[in-house]
Sequence to fold (413 residues):
Amino acid sequence: MRFSKLFSKTTRNISKEVESKNHEFLVRAGYVDQLMSGVYTYLPLGLKVLSKIENIIREEMSEIGGEELLLPALHPAGNWKKTGRWETVDDLYRFKSYYTKTDLALVGTHEEAIVPVAKKFILSYKDLPKYVFQIQTKFRDEKRAKSGILRGREFRMKDLYSFHADEKDLDRYYEIAIKAYKKVFERLGIGDITYLTFASGGTFSKFSHEFQTKSPVGEDTIYLCEKCKVAINREIIEEQSVCPECESDKLKEMKAIETGNIFKLGTKFSEPFNLKYLDKSGKENLAVMGCFGIGSSRAMGTIVEVLSDVKGIVWPKEVAPYDAHLVNLGKDKEAEKLYNDLQKEGIQVLWDDREESAGTKLAYADLLGIPIRVVISDKSLKAGGYEFKLRNQEKTEILDENKLIKKIKEYYV
RNA sequence: CGGGGUGUGGCGCAGUUGGCUAGCGCGCGACGUUUGGGACGUUGAGGCCGGAGGUUCGAGUCCUCUCACCCCGACCA
Fold:
């Protein structure tokens, strides 16, 4: 991709009012644009990152048996009245159809849609367990949207729903899901600072679990056992004041962003919809459910918050919008050849072909945060080739074209 | 929902006790000179000052209402 052809543009000017780092960097670099408070456009560059994040999640959910589907975001009020949540969920967008005057909701969670459809296909113990997930735009009527894309009124989230014959089977799958989540966060580049966290809210079990990523801008306070790498959310510290794994009381307090949340729902939703199956003895039983969420757009914001430096974003290799950021200082002809050659090798290149000063181009390469920067200039050509630099390292080296291609490919293996 | 702030060319901002033709930086167009850390010269285009109503000879500036956005708090992935 040629920089000059991108739909978006970079900017130096951003309102003083914007305080959150992810908001500032993502807007200045042209990844996202704000339409209103808590509602963002994912521009072509930003959508590439978001899609990569979602594909990682998609792969790992498929790996643990999840089948992808797509549920509606627009729901009839009736389903929510059935579960009682029409009255209790404050952040549900409720409205009336202009024409028919029926009550509708634009939703941020999907039990009211998945259970009625699951009921049509789950009839016997032979139909269990089942795991389905979707990645979709959610709506929540936040009292106050904040922190860029970390807390939006419209945001992207993966939610997986599991259906089991009994609690024991749910427990089994729950552990499998925890492992899959760990793998997702590792691939997102934040695995080392994302902790399984015990939290309140189990309607069925004593605790639910969250995945909390350490960050000063996080809204949650957690207590981490550094030995077990397991944490406790402050909301339950009264009832659980020692490490749930090793019972140590040496816990480190820190701020964290909730990047994932998993629940044992039990029969909370199968009951109102009467989701029952026949067991081997021909007796009816309620299906037992689990619910597993990861906010993909929030994950994107989190990555920016925790991995950036003063110059800009530092994308982990698996989520970067392009493999390499090519900067030419003069030398347009040579740059164009290299750009074409790299692309022929299957390398996704963003070439900053704009007529900008050296300083500007280099500064924006840092802001954009693509893992590999390649500079072509008089200086590099005299030294025998092209300058290769990783975004998160200061070291540079001059490589000829073959070595450069090899080096880039090796990096992404 | 409570508290604090901000709305002025595409973006970021200034605009004095109401007074002449509303400025500046960035960006954008043209021409030229530049290229290893946010270059420069010449020149040009681009504004019902968020919206509505009012006060006044005169409103970006004062008053009322309203809409939007940002920050803090409570609530939430």
Observations:
- The radius of gyration of chain A is 24 Å.
- The mean pLDDT of chain A is 94.
